[in-house]
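Re-running the complex after MR caught last week's input typo. The corrected sequence lines follow. Everything else is unchanged.
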Amino acid sequence: MPRAPHPLPDRLRRRLVVGVPAFAAVAGRVRAAPRRTLVIAAFPAVDKIVQAAVPAWQALQPGVEIKVVSRRSSDHHVAMTTALSSASDLPDLFAVEADYIGRFALGRGLEDLRPAPYRIDTLREHFVPYALQQASNPRGEVVAVPSDIGPGTLLYRHDLLQRAGLAEADFTRTWEGYVEGGRRIKAATGAYLLAHARDMKDIAIRTGLAPGEGLYFGPGNTVAVGVGSPRFVRAFELAREVRRGQLDARVSPWTSDWSEGFRRGGIATQMLGAWLAGHLNNWLAPTTRGLWRAAQLPEGAYAAYGGTFFAMARASSAESKALGWQFARLLTTDRTLQLAAFRQHDAFPALVDTFSDPFFEQPIPFLGGQAARLVWREAAQRIAAPAIHKQDRFAEEVVNTELDKVLLQGKDIASALGDAERLLQYRAHR
Amino acid sequence: MRSLTDAADAAAEAAAAKAPVPRVPPPRRLHISARSVPYVLLLPFLALFVVFGVFPLVFSLYLAFQSWEPTSGLQAMQYVGWDNFAFALFDAWFWKAMLNTLWLALASGLPQHLVAIPLACFIHASFPRLRNVVLGVYFAPYITSTVALAIVFTLFYSTDYGLVNSLLGALREWPLVGALLPAQRIDWLGEPQYIKPAIAALVFWRFVGFNIVLYLAGLQAIPRDLYEAARIDGASALQRFRHVTLPGLKPMIVFGVTLSVIGGLQLFEEPFILTPDGRGGSDQAGMTAAVYLYRTAFDFNDFGAASAMSWLLFVAVALATWLTQRMFRSAR
Amino acid sequence: MSSRRAQRWQAAGRYALVGAGALVMLVPFWFMFTFATHSRTEIFSVPPPAWFGDDLLSNLRILGERIPFWRNLGMSLYVALASTALTLLFCSMGGYAFAMFEFRFKRALFALVLGTMLLPSFMAMIPTFMIMDALGWIDQPRALYIPGAASAFGIFLMRQYTASAVPRELIEAARIDGCGELGIYARIVLPLLKPALGTLGLVTFVSSWNNFIGPLIVMRSPENYTLPLALRSLQSPADAEWGALMAGAAVATLPLLVLFALSSRQLISGLTAGAVKQ
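Corrected-run output:
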């Protein structure tokens, strides 16, 4: 900071030396500069999607430059938490992943998008319903706008199923049928049914969830996990059966073992977001092209795996928020941009208006020519988002821990769920 | 104006035979009295220290008595008294994290010193010329970035494609050792009972060289005549070690162990980088107190509890340090 | 005669053990450097490659495409050098003050300084961020190298070493001669502190170079990231370019190893001299 000459007494000068940079930092933000920069914070893949939208933005606002700040996903959310905590040095717009949106929505740091000038309620029918649910909090505010979603799908190795003499329908009717199918696949081909028994538990606890019900907590901070919850008991039993039948490869997603499992045909199915097909094609297991198919999740379970939202900080200036909203609106409601992101980055659009595009009916070569996007489109419209609770993240981990004990140490399900319930009750009020 | 000879005489009189002769001091331009000079010397450091050292300390102490969800901004803080401390003290996970920390501190710390002392003796006895190279090799892990290490060791510990398991697989062929090893490939980073040894091994690898350097220096300070005297008295190598080396190394051992205790109890980086997303792994086996603290703050968005826990951890570390000092003092 | 043979066996045993240990220390580095020359799929083959491949240039190219690699490297260098220079200056001054002078609150102050070493660094994340923002230092390198200059470890080391290596009589003599206090510091004390300065310099350089939490908080633009942070941002689970990452990790480590090779003697003597004289 260059110092102007100060013909002032020492004390005052000292105060100015500290105050001037601080003042300038504040003034710089409020002053309307002719050449404005819109700062958008994101993480890999989403950063490229934002960059791709720049030409369209330039047409709208030629005087405003876009600057993308990209960090690894977990680091990005830590940085956003830090910035929000002191309400300073905030980006004008930032991306939030579906895993984190619950936490951020529960706090008071994000701007509510219902009132003017945003009026997100007028855009409601343009978005996939559950996505907006995810971005809402118990106070009724909608604090983020969905950009892409991750409709859950069951990707399976068609050739392995055939060798085991199974048809997709038997496989996906019930969870028990799915596990039984896994046994036959193992016997006929030696491949594992899924990556980890935990995945079985994850999807089973989402099955049969009533709309508005929370995954781990009920209304008024009651704990939904426990021996009295048939949902959890069944999920644990299914996972245990999978493990007992040695039907899972015991690998966690995104590890090198997991990707090698796909490459070598060691894992027959994976339940994850639709975007997985793109990853498999691009780098996970490109040599297995044509061998996979996509189906709806068994037993009519519709779940979401991932997704991206854009939000703004309540503490940002009105001007910054107005510009940020303009960009977010462009990115999320422009058909061309949404479809481009879908084509290039497997970002399944949250914008319902795109669903009529012929792109959805196109066969996907990686999936043996199946028009899988139709499957996913249907799923997207049927997913119901569970209600969020502040301790969801903690609950997920507690349940995973207890499941591990059941799987690895043979702990019985009743006491495992009982322990989990106790632990969650201790924290439900924080 | 002082002459060169006067200054040289003064230096010689000071009997500082080892010190180089100071040059002629310039004529005094700036008069700082001897009384105020320490404050002047300390000022830059203190200024930074108060802003970047003390303020965060005070802030976190203040925060320990508040309930704060960070994304809601500063105004969302609410005074809750001792509630955070009570929560932490009755939290099963907090104690689990403390136990993990203790286990890891011991499992990684003890071998470091038990291996470093003999190795330092060996290096001291041999390698007169190559000593710096050897020490350099042992010290290299210490100076490597944890980000780089995360990348390398995650690959090493991979269940099906990692080096560690490949090596164990080769060892399994050997008659005796093979019987001791488990039959299948070990899921180092995935199963609770293996996560801790995996982390402990990484910590050991990183810091054993640091301790070797310390002990080597300590060994160099032990006068040779003591060894001579012991040899004349008929002491064997082992007895010389017990009665000359170990007592001579004592101050260094105290220093090294204290550093290991403090570092061990604050273990954060190694568990953070080895477990996915820094969560501490299955059954939180790799979740040390510091990792749990981090998670409470940034995963569970509970900064008040995190601050309270960090102060509890502080008390634990201070206690452990004091105990270490006492233990060595009484062993005199 | 037999005792000599026994001695030779013992010597051989010592060499063997030290050599084995050295090998264990080096294995991860070996693989870091060899994996840096292989592509992603080659790294994951069973067994993994043990010798160099030919993908180094393509890995570096990928690295350069994904992140402003050379700029980040330059930033790391700049911050580390500035941090080292400032820390050496401030801590040697402060250490000298603590070692050679008596003043009010001296012991309490020293205890406070040491006490800050016991607080985990990330607890200071948010208050540090607040200060940086108030000062307008966000996204500027000075936010990285200025706070570090108040290093508790640095003051501790310098105090220990100054107390043991600088004789009081010398200071007294210089004072009697009329040498100004700052002159004493600059011309007499500082040259005597060289080994400890070498040590502190190396330790500071290394910790500044490897630090990723600091830059994570205060840096906004990817061009201003330091190297470890830039490498971390490449590590998205969905598309890790392992070969390029290894190459980046290798490059992130190399300068430190070179620096250490050049200054190891000073590091060792400085570190140990300060510690022995408790």
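None of the earlier attempt is carried over here. Residues 128 and 134 of chain C are 10 Å apart (CA to CA). Chain C touches chain A through 25 residues (CB under 8 Å).
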